[in-house]
């Protein structure tokens, strides 16, 4: 596929309060699922779609992200001397792409974080990837969204149906399904009550945006929670231009939330060649002791 989208923006300047105290001095995006930090899963997802320029929006206590994607001379020499070629290759591969880092002076919201990317993105369409939404590497969410962008050359949002009791945590859309799983969006509401929501279809952490979003973001006043909300800017944009959505039916883990993070850890561990057998046996024996405690 010829990609019209060459840059990906990774907002990573949030405070990560749901993971305190772990996130007091270290970035939430560096929390590992088995042996890889959340942000690496996100970067690899973009890599698989042939995106090679990465813009990280960082803030206070986020320097570990820069180190993670940089060359690590001493570590590389050490791995080389021990003949650990596969790990050396993996460590080096990460540093090969172009990374730009922009500090968001204060966590004024996702919309503000994206606006900070403007000097690097300039006049190009770009992907936005929220690393706390982990998409199963077997699923092709971003790739499908890029196909839709190639066809319509307009904003494309990732969508997912969510249970009623989770509606209040998301931006929720109203729209018409114009083709299987492709929606033309007519409205969106940030974190509504389930009773006031226009549907059960939520916006999840993948976006293909066009550079005209920046003017809308610059004019967006602080909304819910005093933050500059991307949803508010998208809502203003969709009055002028079509906005599409792709309804994702694969597997997503909300790793920004403790329970979602634990689910991702268990499922990824059950697929990890190094630990899967041992871990499955451990889970089965833990489960059987939970069951027998329940019976007594
Ligand atoms: P979240 O809503 O998950 O906020 O942000 P958070 O601060 O990371 O975590 P909690 O809710 O306090 O636990 C969604 C994404 O937007 C980024 C975050 O880093 C995350 O990737 N973000 C949010 C920013 O980059 N800047 C902001 O001002 C807010």
Describe this structure in words.
The chain is α/β, with parallel strands linked by helices. The protein folds into 2 domains: 7-254, Alpha-Beta Complex (Spore Coat Polysaccharide Biosynthesis Protein SpsA, Chain A), CATH 3.90.550; 257-296, no CATH class. The protein has helices at residues 38-48, 63-68, 73-81, 85-95, 110-115, 118-121, 141-152, 213-219, 230-237, 258-269, 276-295, and strands at residues 7-11, 32-33, 36-37, 53-58, 98-103, 126-129, 133-135, 155-161, 171-179, 182-190, 201-209, 243-247, 252-254. The strands form 3 sheets. The protein has a 5-stranded mixed β-barrel. It has a two-stranded antiparallel sheet with strand order 2-3. A hairpin with a 2-residue loop joins strand 2 (32-33) and strand 3 (36-37). The longest helix is centred in the last third of the chain and has 20 residues, at 276-295. The N and C termini lie far apart (59 Å). The structure holds uridine 5'-triphosphate. Residues 11-18, 28, 57, 104, 107-110, 112-113, 130-132, 256 line the site of uridine 5'-triphosphate (UTP). Residues 11-18, 28, 57, 104, 107-110, 112-113, 130-132, 256 line the site of uridine 5'-triphosphate.
């Amino acid at each position: 596929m010829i990609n019209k989208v060459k840059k990906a923006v990774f907002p990573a300047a949030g405070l990560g309060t749901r993971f305190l105290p772990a996130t007091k001095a270290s970035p939430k995006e560096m929390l590992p699922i088995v042996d890889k930090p959340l942000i690496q899963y996100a970067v690899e997802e973009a890599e698989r779609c042939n995106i090679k320029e990465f813009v990280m929006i960082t803030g206070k206590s986020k320097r570990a992200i820069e180190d993670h994607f940089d060359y690590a001379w001493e570590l590389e020499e050490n791995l080389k001397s021990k003949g650990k070629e596969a790990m050396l290759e993996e460590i080096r591969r990460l540093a090969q792409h172009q990374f730009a880092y922009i500090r968001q002076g204060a966590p004024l919201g996702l919309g503000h974080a994206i606006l900070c990317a403007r000097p690097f993105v300039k006049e190009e369409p770009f992907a936005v990837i929220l690393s706390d939404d982990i998409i199963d590497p077997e699923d092709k969410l971003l790739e499908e969204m890029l196909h839709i962008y190639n066809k319509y050359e307009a904003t494309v949002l990732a969508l997912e149906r969510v249970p009623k009791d989770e509606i209040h945590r998301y931006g929720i859309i109203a729209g018409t399904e114009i083709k299987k799983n492709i929606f033309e969006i007519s409205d969106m509401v940030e974190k509504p009550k389930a009773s006031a929501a226009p549907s059960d279809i939520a916006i999840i952490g993948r976006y293909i945006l066009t550079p005209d979003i920046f003017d809308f973001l610059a004019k967006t006043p602080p909304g819910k929670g005093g933050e500059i909300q991307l949803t508010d800017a998208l809502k203003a944009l969709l009055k002028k231009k079509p906005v599409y959505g792709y309804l994702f039916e694969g597997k997503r883990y909300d790793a920004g939330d403790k329970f979602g993070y634990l689910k991702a850890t268990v499922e990824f561990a059950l697929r990890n060649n190094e630990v899967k057998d041992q871990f499955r046996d451990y889970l089965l024996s833990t489960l059987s002791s939970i069951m027998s405690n329940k019976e007594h």
